[in-house]
Amino acid sequence: MSKQPPVPTGNQSPYPLEEQPHVHNGEGEAVTAAREAAEARKRRAHSSRQLGIGAAVGVGSAAVVAGLLFWRGNRKDGKNKK
């Protein structure tokens, strides 16, 4: 006699208790993963156009901030008198 009680068919797990054997390809999983990672890295790499646009936006925004900081609108402190 076994020590496990019988399990009704409705309560049995749909998943197998033992894993099925795997089919192995010619190359290893590590080689495939490394190749996929290199391709993904290449797709995510910034192009020179993106870097140029980013630099232009950065310089432009710095110029706008500097212009706002040093702007001296219509000051009435006597420096603009004639």
Regions with pLDDT < 50 over 5+ consecutive residues?
none
How many strands appear in the DSSP assignment?
0
Percentage of residues in strands: under 5%
Average pLDDT, all residues: 81
Helix and strand element order: HH
Choose one word for the global shape. Answer: elongated
| Count of separate DSSP helical elements | 2
Helix content: 40-55%
Describe it for me?
The chain is mostly helical and 82 residues long. It has helices at residues 29-44, 48-69. The longest helix is centred in the last third of the chain and has 22 residues, at 48-69. It is built from 2 helices and no strands. It is elongated and about 105 Å long.
Brief write-up:
With 82 residues, the protein is mainly α. Helices cover 46% and strands 0% of the residues.
Observed structural traits:
82 residues, mainly alpha, 46% helix
List the helices and strands and how they pair.
Layout lengths: L28 H16 L3 H22 L13
